[in-house]
Design a protein that fits this description.
mainly alpha, Rna Polymerase Sigma Factor, Chain: A, 2 domains
Length: about 250
């Protein structure tokens, strides 16, 4: 199977200040519950990739910012900020993950009950001689629609991914220059990126600080600080594909 370099994404599309490291996300949620609306709005903005990732996983398809499912996820994240309690034994992102999943699943079930897809049955056709042609035409139309939808999804993902990269001061042009040349180095960077994406603490640090949690990573991987720093932009870019739920772009990092 032919693999495609992440740097090829550039062909498809024409900083946060560091905060006090002693302030945890849980502390910020506590401040929000005490009335800090500016901080609430900031977290709702910063954690949209996290929200989209969870929502896309539940729906088993790509969810962008214009979809109802994303709005449900965003509302659930906001709800989680109000309901979270520090002493309940879990980190905020773990709690938020659970709330988002529950609300999106409730929405999907509600929609499934309300919306029934009706297909044309043969006996309902008036002209017997047009039965086969009618079904063939319907199938062809659905196939064309599906192809067009996939194309639109890919373009949506590329545009949103490009905007997300800009928040980390990364462009497609910069990314193509910072892609590891050796296969081993590239695979190692992908492994580190996946490690970050799968860990709420590491991914939370990345999204909040806009930088790699190098100190924590060094305790989990065998490569050196120098290696991580040299591939920093590539690692961040790959991690954001996972965190953003960009399913159509994952072929670029396989």
């Amino acid at each position: 199977m032919t693999t495609i370099s992440i740097s090829a994404l550039g062909n498809f599309a024409t900083k946060n200040e560091n905060k006090n490291e002693s302030i945890t996300l849980e502390d910020k949620v506590d401040s929000i519950q005490k009335g800090n609306q500016a901080l609430r709005n900031q977290l709702l903005e910063d954690y949209q990739p996290f929200i989209k990732k969870i929502t896309s996983k539940v729906c088993n398809r790509y969810i962008n910012h214009s979809m109802d499912e994303f709005s449900i996820g965003l509302s659930a994240f906001n709800e989680a900020m109000d309901q979270y309690r520090k002493g309940q034994g879990s980190r905020f992102l773990t709690f938020a993950d659970m709330v988002i999943r529950r609300r999106v699943i409730d929405y999907i079930r509600k929609e499934a009950r309300q919306n029934k897809y009706i297909y044309l049955e043969p006996e309902e056709l008036d002209e017997e001689g047009r039965l086969e042609d009618s079904f063939a035409e319907q199938k062809a139309a659905l196939d064309v629609y599906e192809i067009e939808k996939q194309r639109e999804v890919r373009m949506f993902e590329i545009e949103e991914y490009e905007q997300l990269l800009k928040k980390f001061s990364i462009t497609f042009k910069v990314l193509s220059k910072n892609c590891p040349k050796h296969i081993d180095a590239r695979e190692n960077a992908k492994m580190i990126a996946k490690l970050i994406a799968d860990d709420h603490v590491l991914s939370g640090y990345l999204l909040e600080k806009k930088q790699l949690p190098i100190k924590d990573l060094l305790a989990l991987v065998t490569c050196s600080r120098k290696t991580i720093e040299r591939n920093r932009k590539y690692i961040i870019a790959v991690a954001l594909i996972h965190l953003g739920g960009f399913n159509a772009l994952k072929s670029y990092i396989q």
